[in-house]
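In this supplementary section we document a worked example of the pipeline. Step one takes a protein sequence of length 416 as its only input; no multiple sequence alignment statistics are reported here. Step two produces a three-dimensional model, which step three serialises into structure tokens for compact storage. The input and output of this example are shown verbatim.
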Amino acid sequence: MRARSAVTLVALLVGLVACTGEGGSRDDAGATRPPTTAPTTPFGVSSALDTQKAGTATAGRQYRPGSVSPAHASGGRTLTVLDVTSGGGLVAAANPAPKTGDGTVTIGQSEMGLQRGAGFAPFPKARRTCSDRPRQAVYADERDGVVVWTESASTNLYVFDWCVFAYTPKTGTTTLLGDSAAVSHGKDMPEAPGSSAPSIGDGKAYWATAYPTTGKREFGVRVVAQALNGGGEPATVADGAKLPRAAGKDLYYVRSADVSPDFPKDRYEIRRVTPDGEDALVTGGPLPTGREITALTVAGDHVSWVVAAPEQQTATLYALDTRTKKAVTFALGHAAPATMFLRSTPQFLAWGNGSAAGDAGQYVYDFAHGRLWRLGTEDGFSVVYAKGSYLAWSKLPTAPTEEAGSASFETAKWSG
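The serialised model returned by step three reads:
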């Protein structure tokens, strides 16, 4: 099992700074470079909510129960859930058990597919693929039936190779979108800060990747895009950028000094790239020493992100209404590492702390009603996925006879 998978994802923020300048235009690689002016779109805080005062979400009232997924697939494989679909199904990977010996871990090849109830329907294999080494799926995103996912052959926390695939239901085919070998040029690369999780927009998939540089820093970070039907190499959308999140035809991302060396160390910006290449400031704020942006999600009129203070084991979640320029804040009872799960739809914001220490509650904030709810609490594996009106959250085994480390997911349609 990969240590940075959806089950035990570990953030790597080691020496990853893109060696780029700023100028408000596109560079030779096609990446947008925003100007160095200070943020001009400040936001106000309309309310600050305490997670300890969250209501308890109840089946039949706040949500309509769906199904509970099994923890295992056929052949003794573990079923790893990577997303919930807009129709209430689950995107999952069936993974063979890893083998250990002589201080090494050997993984088997993931089989990706959709899980509905007790049934697992695998996606067809892609005609083109990456290396012949076994790879396991670590991230996925679904939109209107299209699924994009990332696989990696690495079992080393400090190395991250990637292969990105897309399954399209209209054609019933799986297509290779990108291979990190085209970026790494034979060099071992770390994962991009935040994560290299894909995000689906209109006709394109986006993800962040490290890349070797010849500058003062060994690696840079950029956001790339590829058409969902593949073709050619992924194109650079923004250099010195992390945490890409697609919203229709637009692409949102975070810029801060950890990925952009020329950017001021004491602030951050959330920016939006439009189809015509305009790179516009959405919002920004101060970023004191020891703090970092670890998560971003965008849906409807809301942009939400986390400012974490790892050494203090604290973090603040912001949910900004872009129409009113007012934000609701949540003081999180954990350090909010990049391994936490933060998802949103036009209806609600959902999160869990992943495998972090501290508050392991699985929360839903209903935008329309301004209410905060707790779905459950799962210490060691607090995961929530959201898409459309649907939620899926992790449930660890309670019986001592059940296999340790296995998890099922409950799905539900949110009522509010």
